[in-house]
Structures are given as C-alpha cells and as structure tokens.
Design brief:
This protein is of the alpha+beta class. Helices cover about 25% and strands about 20% of the residues.
Length: about 290
C-alpha cells in the first residue's frame, strides 16, 4: 500500500493526465483500497494511533476522481456454521481469533466488511477505506457521503480526517475465501487484490454488452456509480455489517463502520449485475454526462 499522493505534485499530476487519457479511450482504471483497514499498511501495527491525520490514512491512487477505488467484503453466516463435509468451496471454516467460533458462507448469510483481528487464517483481511487528505470531495459524492456523516456509524474523531474531502472506496466485491487453482490444488485467498480484478471482470462484461450493441465502452465511471445509486438503488447490494479499524495484524483505535448506503468500508456496495445493465440501458443517451468528473 502506497502513501497517498499530493495531486499538485509533478509526479501525481502527470498520473492524473494519463488516467484521463485512458478514460477518454473507454478504459476504466481500478485501484484496490488496501487490506489493512482505515489505518492502512502505513499504520499496520497501530504505531501511529492518536496522531492527527496519521491514525487513519488513505492509499494511492484510491483518492483520484478518475480512478474507481474497490473495497472488499466477506460472506459470513449469521451464526456458527456447520461442520459437515458437504459445504461448497467458499464454505471453508474460518476461526475468528479470540472467539473460537467457526463461520461458513451458508444461508442465512450476511456480507461484512470485516470479522475481527489477528493473523490471516484462510485469508483474513479488512477492507481499506476513509477520506483523502488532498482531494476535495466531488459534487457527485455529496449526497452519499453526507448521509454517512449524519449516521451513527463508527468513525474517528472529526479532527482525525477531512470530511469535506473525497471518500473511498467507491464500490466493493468479494475479498475473502476466494477460491483459486494453483500448483495443482485449490486454495482460498483473500484481499482487495482479489476483489479489484474481479470487479474489472464485471466491468469487462458490461463493456462487452455495450460493444455488442455498437456502443462505446465505459471509461471514467465515478460519477455514473453515484448517480446510479440515487436513480436506481437496486443496482447495488448494500453491505451494512462490519468495520475497518483492524489491520491484518491487529485492531487499532480508529476506523469506520458500515452503514446503509455509501460508507468508507465497502463504498456503495457491490453490483446487482442485471440491474446495472438495466440502468445503463436506460441512461445510455446521457452516458457522456455521467462519465464526467463532476
């Protein structure tokens, strides 16, 4: 995880230009929000707890208005899971440190930003999220972010983050117990490095759908994502459980809690794919406007 960049610097401003160029070519740039919660990898051991603007830190390049920041969530059973061998692959047992309980992704299930703290067991991570120190909040985020700030959800003291700046992540995807085939066997992995490329795959399917209709691909979609949340909320599956004060190593003093709508853990939630396609079809004539930065 890389420290957030001051966009006025030469290096970062040149990055912005390149992302704009990619967007104009119909390419959507994604960035993982990180696996160490709101403290980020820079405060992984909670050594900066209590220091203003350092207890919770943004990661680069999540806070660019031209990059879609992708968080992660876990699928958990609402109570201790079964131990039978007939579970699906995602249903590997996961021990939550200090609780001795096992959770399984069977119904009735819930989506959660995190489940506890401690070393990785079958791929434990906590989704990164928070607020930029440099990027002012774009207007398209106002309604979503203000709703979070008015909620009772967990967050650091006001002096520890800039509530007027851009919030991240924008959206999220599964980032725990992701099954891969490697070196001849199946194993579960985790992280926003899982959720982000999977979201890239989802966007590729949307682009394929557009191309089959003779339409251009998406490009910069940040404004589109937030407009869709207002105009067609069924396009998202909201994640309202969990918080991100924990890192991969331990739980720190400050973080953010999940809430209804957008939050700095899993953003607007994850896609309800058929409803996303339905919305894009309905707004195709104004997609150019919805691709704009502000």
């Amino acid at each position: 995880e890389i420290k957030e960049c001051d966009w006025s610097s030469d290096v970062c401003s040149s990055d912005l230009v390149e992302w704009v160029k990619l967007g104009m070519r119909g390419i959507t740039v994604l960035s993982a929000s990180g696996d160490n919660g709101a403290p980020s990898g820079q405060n992984k051991d909670c050594q900066l707890d209590g220091e203003k603007y350092f207890s919770v830190l943004a990661a680069y390049p999540c806070t660019s208005p031209y990059v879609v920041a992708v968080g992660a969530f876990a699928v958990l059973e609402e109570k201790a899971g079964p131990t039978s061998g007939s579970q699906p692959p995602i249903c590997k047992e996961l021990v939550v440190e200090g609780k001795g309980e096992k959770y399984c992704a069977g119904k009735p299930w819930t989506l959660a930003a995190s489940i506890g703290s401690g070393p990785q067991i079958n791929g434990f991570i906590t989704t990164g999220g928070g607020f930029s120190n440099y990027t002012k909040r774009p207007a398209y985020q106002d309604q979503a972010v203000q709703q979070f700030l008015k909620s009772t959800a967990l967050r650091p003291p006001a002096e520890f983050f800039n509530a007027n700046n851009l919030g991240f992540p924008d959206i999220s995807n599964l980032g725990s117990q992701v099954i891969i085939y490697q070196n001849g066997h199946i194993e579960p992995v985790a992280g926003t490095s899982c959720s982000t490329p999977m979201m890239g795959g989802v966007l590729t399917l949307i682009n394929d759908y557009l191309l089959q209709k003779g339409r251009p691909t998406l490009g910069v979609i940040n404004k589109l994502l937030y407009t869709m949340a207002i105009e067609h909320p069924t396009a998202y599956i909201d994640v309202t459980e969990g918080s991100n004060e924990c890192t991969e190593v331990k739980c720190c003093k400050y973080g953010y809690g999940s809430a209804k709508g957008w939050d700095p853990t899993t953003g607007l939630g994850t896609f309800n794919f058929p409803e996303v396609l339905k919305y894009i079809d309905s707004v195709y004539d104004r997609l150019d406007i919805l691709r704009a930065k502000y």
